[in-house]
Amino acid sequence: MPTAAIASFRKVTPGVIASARLAMANDVPRVTKGEVAIALKRAARPLGIDGTAYHVLDILLGLSKARDWEAGNRPVVAISNRKLAEYVGRSERTVIRALKRLVEAGILAYRDSSTGRRWVHRNTEGAIERAYGLDFRPAQVRYGEITALADAYQAELNAEREARRAVVRLSRAILDIVESAAREGLALDLSPYMRRLETVMSATRPAQDKAADLDELYEALVSAVAEGGQTADRASDPAGDRQERAAGDDLSRSPDMTGAGDIDVTPLSITNAHPLRNPCNNERTPASAGDIKSKTDGGFAAEWLPKREQAGKAERTGKAHGTRPKGGGQRSKGSGDRSPNPHLSDVSIHLIETACRLVGSELGLSLSSWNDLRNAVEALRLAVGVSQSAWALAEERLGGQTAAAILIVVVEKSLREPDRIGSPGGYFRAMVERAGEGRLNLARSLFGLAAE
Predict the structure, then answer these.
(1) Cα(25)–Cα(23) distance, rounded to whole angstroms?
(2) pLDDT tens digits for 2-17?
(3) Which of 85-89, 190-194, 327-331: highest mean pLDDT?
(4) CB within 8 Å of 65: residues ≥ 6 apart
(5) What is the DSSP letter of 67?
(6) Which residues are bridge partners to 110 per DSSP?
(7) What confidence tens digit (pLDDT) does each residue in 158-182 have?
(8) What is the pTM of this model?
(9) What's the rounded Cα separation, in Å, for the pair 450 and 407?
(10) Which of 29, 59, 74, 394 is the most exposed, fewest CB within 10 Å of its CB?
(11) How far apart are CA 92 and CA 268, in angstroms?
């Protein structure tokens, strides 16, 4: 008797089979939807999830219900490829490929019905009785592995950041030592150290390797300069000079040279040099690192301003240096105390750190300065699925500092109430639009988060 032909929905790969096996596991850890969502977004980069696949993942997480992630339930999302394509603005074929990437990454599993359609049937209490669609059970089973992967990736990013800072710090210190030795007139040939510095800085190597090489070079340079200084002191103090100084010391200790009977005169600080005061204490070694520049938080804040405000700041700087155009009036009183960024006039980095405490703990970020917030933009953007184009538009319109403050508020609210914010990317764009129209009170939102 001939067997009926069975139509296949897709090509099966080892990754698809591995996800199907994870979906059949019975040992499922007790985790909530929010915990899995945070772990997946933190580990998106090492898992190879970006672009359309990340957008699709964000939509599927938003469509899943929190109660479906509880013990005894199965988080299945039933949505057609056509509807997903409308949501992400891509073709159905692109969405199909994105779903396959998520399945092969061990995040989703195909749970197919006999016809290939996706649907969910719930009882009167809202619990799932039968469901066919995209199953998040593999992500539940791999929660510990995904969290460890995210932690390792975050540690790698932190190490890379610290290494870049060490490269700037050590290179500036080496340049300062070389310039100081030249000013002191030490007879040392330090050109090999400078050539080595240029070689290390121009090499296309990881920052950790550069930092290790510069640390070794810095120690060698310090030892060489210290030994050269001691040699110079011994060379400038021959035996004859030492004998003359010894004879002078003996004369100063003789009874005939005592100060007995002299008039007691109080020294004037204006005309008499203090015996312990070093006239060179006010000299400060300049940190001229050439083309190696280290920006402070203030420098970053200036670069974060929108282009039109940067132009205004440059004009004010020119006026401060005497390049005021002809016919300019007097500067209004108190204008120098005005914040260069009107959107953040009542916002400090300490307020952001206090209000967004969940971001710091869940994503492992330190927000002690505006520089830290700037470095965390990429991780925050990936955490909620804000596209690069949306971020670029916000940065151009409001400046990077304001855009980053809005972004971290969106991430904090998404972590606290994932069910209320179904599309963090759309929420971010809406806040940017309100800020551009002058209708966003960011300080009030931050104070509200800090009070909760």
Answers:
(1) 6
(2) 444 544 567 888 999 9
(3) 85-89
(4) 33, 75, 126
(5) G
(6) 134
(7) 898 899 899 999 988 998 888 888 8
(8) 0.52
(9) 16
(10) 29
(11) 90
User: What are residue 77's DSSP bridge partners?
Assistant: 134
For the chain, report the end-to-end CA distance as a whole number of angstroms: 70
What is the residue type of 105?
A
Positive or negative, the CA dihedral 39, 42, 48, 53 is positive
Residue 51: CB partners within 8 Å, gap ≥ 6?
98
Tokens of 421: 């914010």
The pair of three-digit structure tokens given for residue 419, joined into one six-digit string: 């069910």
DSSP string, 272-295: SPPTT--TTTT-------TT----
Q: Closest by alpha carbon to 37, among 87, 78, 94, 75?
A: 75
Is residue 122 a contact partner of residue 129, using CB atoms and an 8 Å limit? yes
Q: Which residue stretches of 348-399 are H helix? A: 349-355, 357-363, 370-375, 377-384, 388-398
Count CB neighbours of 385 within 10 A: 23
Whole-angstrom distance, CA of residue 121 vs CA of residue 98 = 26
Q: Is 131 helix (H, G, I), strand (E, B) or coil?
A: strand
Cβ neighbours around 56 below 10 Å, total:
28
Give residue-wise pLDDT tens across range 119-161.
888 888 878 888 899 999 999 999 999 999 999 999 998 898 8
Tell me the residue type at 207. Answer: A
Distances (CA, A) of 272 to 276, 278, 408: 12, 13, 59
Count Cα neighbours of 36 within 13 Å in the Cβ-side half-sphere: 28
Residue 361 CB contacts under 8 Å (≥ 6 apart), including other chains = none
The closest of 294, 433, 423 to 371, measured between CA atoms, is 294
One-letter amino acid identity for 246?
A
Q: What is the pLDDT of residue 327?
A: 42
Mean pLDDT for the stretch of residues 186-191:
80
Q: How many residues does the chain have?
A: 452
Token duo for residue 178: 């070389």
Sign of the Cα torsion 46, 49, 55, 60 reads negative
Q: Name the nearest CA neighbour of 182 among 230, 237, 228.
A: 228
